[in-house]
Amino acid sequence: MAKTLYDKLFDSHVVHEENGTALIYIDRHLVHEVTSPQAFEGLRLAGRKPWRISSIVATADHNTPTNGWDKGLAGIADPIARLQIETLSDNIREFGAKAYFPFMDASQGIVHVVGPEQGATLPGMTVVCGDSHTSTHGAFGALAHGIGTSEVEHVMATQCLVQKKSKTMQVLVNGTLGRGVTAKDVALAIIGKTGTAGGNGYAIEFAGSAIRGLSMEGRMTLCNMAIEAGARAGMVAVDDKTIDYVKGRPFAPKADQWDAAVAYWKTLHSDDDAKFDAIITLDASEIQPQVTWGTSPEMVVDIDGCVPSLDLAKNDVQRGDWERAYAYMGLAPNTPISEISIDKVFIGSCTNSRIEDLRAAAAIAKGKHVAPNVKLALVVPGSGLVKAQAELEGLDKIFTEAGFEWREPGCSMCLAMNADRLEPGERCASTSNRNFEGRQGQGGRTHLVSPEMAAAAAVAGHFVDVRQFI
Amino acid sequence: MKPFIKLDGLVAPLDRANVDTDAIIPKQFLKSIKRSGFGPNAFDEWRYLDHGEPSMDNTKRKINPDFVLNQARYQGASVLLTRENFGCGSSREHAPWALEDYGFKVVIASSFADIFFNNCFKNGMLPIVLSADVVDNLFNQVAENEGYKLNIDLAAQTVTTPTGEVYAFEVDAVRKHNLLNGLDDIGLTMQQQDKIKAFEAKHQQAQPWLFN
User: Kind and range of the H or E element at B150?
Assistant: First the structure.
């Protein structure tokens, strides 16, 4: 029977199945400091050990500061954050891991940037992490999704996860993306169409010529935001770009296993006549640069659009949500997006902090300067290796000369667990993934955009169509 | 895990769609390395007028009188009634930990985000999906009747109103069994360890690079 990519990945990992509930085997377990301490404690209390230590790759990212590294751990002013970072180190020391990139390690970074760049994420794998943006790794033709801390403990103890098979959705984007339109805009346009609950219960496969045309970085951006459409897992079929990206990375298969691996990986696509439970199509040429206006990623419009008026809401519940969003965001209906001025800019996060993102933002910022009304424009590379590569290319100079701050890697102001945050009422152009109330700091107002659009907004001091800059 | 069997609980209404886990438990409380004590900070940014931090004495903070859960009539509620896509966003299990610690044992909504839904069952909580029309009706009844309670029976898979209306709900058979009996997932999976080992051996032979 013809199978979807999701079927192939799921079925090849079923250990046991009963009454429609399967036990699936987990190949890679990514671990960070926030969602793991209670799981390690659970193992300890039950006298259990990890089933397969070589599946675990860990790093500290959520709490880590992005400056003051010269002071080491002592530079983390918040003692509770410091304890959580130290606890991860203690736990890895006690229980073991295939690889651990602790705070300030040269390869430390956001777990969803580090996994792929180390070759720790491979096609055909099942990948889990106590983090909803684990969907990122689906870009490699892997089955990857976020889990809760109880499940983190379960995977550590048993190498398995109790799962019911999801429904499948194909998001088909055909055609060519216009100038200045990125994977981030595709992701936001999809969410604008499906809503944030549209993917609930589904695993999404992104397909079509526009998706094939994306780089691996772009595919990671897209799969990263599958969870914002409600789908735990997003994925893209393996092609030559996937294989070229993986080749030569530290944990990728070496010479003696490479050919066999590639032969298998090339089967990781949906069969031609595979059936999906739902199909959504978008025309790539119609997608414009996107900006969110509200407090959910589905509250999104084109850059030349306006904050929508209440008569466009589909029902009373949405009208209520929009009214709350207007008030929280300090925006009136029908305000043109390009007239919204900003206070801060954040370029980073597991969505948009890879080298390609930084190159794209730097290309816009080059030779220009951050507008006087912008109090802070942060660039936070996704990992130490991304930072080093960017510095090799001189991107740090371009940013700092343009008035941006060039920081150390980590999750930073995507979720503001460290000191990087918005103050109440501050408005931010952000390349992150969530514009929820309080996400970047209590009372902070987040607008999600691509790296190019964030850099353009930094320079203009308000949202602006990036196509005017290129 | 504590079993969940039946509940006759006071209902509190949270009339919003897409309530995300950042709202249920803001990030600053995720720095804790414990899994208890999150209840006083559930819905922190909506519930209090000041900015909350983990080190604060929550009993001394200024309560937001406009937030629905702060109303006197909803004190002691154990059933949360809300709208579609509840628990979207972050996978943080701190969200169900906070709700459970606050006193909620059941959340009723027209839909839930997948990860949150799953996390509830790991913590002895029951998320119940009812149709948008039924949820609408329940919101009206809660508003009109102070002290409104719902009777939830997991074995029978029913929600019963004070006036005797009965709404059936779906629940996965395995999850239901585990919740009714308070069974620990890890213990159950460990009973399959021979199968896991056999799968692992076969998997390693087929894809040895996964085990490098």
Answer: strand B149-153
CA–CA separation, A190 and A207 (whole Å): 12
Instruction: Find the CB nearest B85 among A35, A130, A197.
Output: A197
Residue A237's contacts (CB-CB under 8 Å, 6 or more residues apart) are A5, A141, A205, A207, A268, A269, A270
Window 177-196 of B: residues touching A by CB (8 A cutoff) are 185-186, 189-190, 192-193, 195-196
Report the chain A residue with the minimal C-alpha distance to residue B186.
A154
**Dihedral sign computed on CA atoms, order A189, A191, A192, A198:** positive
Separation of alpha carbons A2 and A111, rounded Å: 34
Q: Which residues of A touch B85 (CB under 8 A)?
A: 196-197, 200, 230
Angle, to 10 degrees, between the axis of helix A111-118 and the axis of helix A216-224?
Answer: 140
Q: Select from A112, A135, A110, A137 the least CA-distant residue to A125.
A: A137
Interface membership of A292 toward B (CB under 8 Å):
no
Cβ within 8 Å of B, A 397-426: 415-417
pLDDT below 70 — which residues of chain A? none
What's the pLDDT score for residue A19? 84
Entry pTM: 0.97
Cα(A251)–Cα(A73) distance, integer angstroms: 28
Per-residue confidence at B1, pLDDT binned at 50, 70, 90? confident
DSSP states of A270-333: --TT---SEEEEEEGGG---EEE-SSSTTSEEETT-BPPPGGG-SSHHHHHHHHHHHHHHT--T
pLDDT tens, residue by residue, A217-271: 999 999 999 999 999 999 999 999 999 999 999 999 998 899 999 999 999 999 9
CB A397 within 8 A of CB A372: no
CB distance B212–A153 less than 8 Å? no
Cα separation, A255 vs A56, in Å, equals 23
What pLDDT digit, counting tens, does each position of A195-221 carry?
A: 999 999 999 999 999 999 999 999 999
Dist. CA A411–CA A110, nearest whole Å: 6
Looking at beta carbons, which residues of chain B come within 8 Å of A298? 18
A321 and B119 within 8 Å at the Cβ level: the answer is: no
DSSP type of residue B48: B
CB < 8 Å from A in window 120-179 of B:
122-123, 172-174
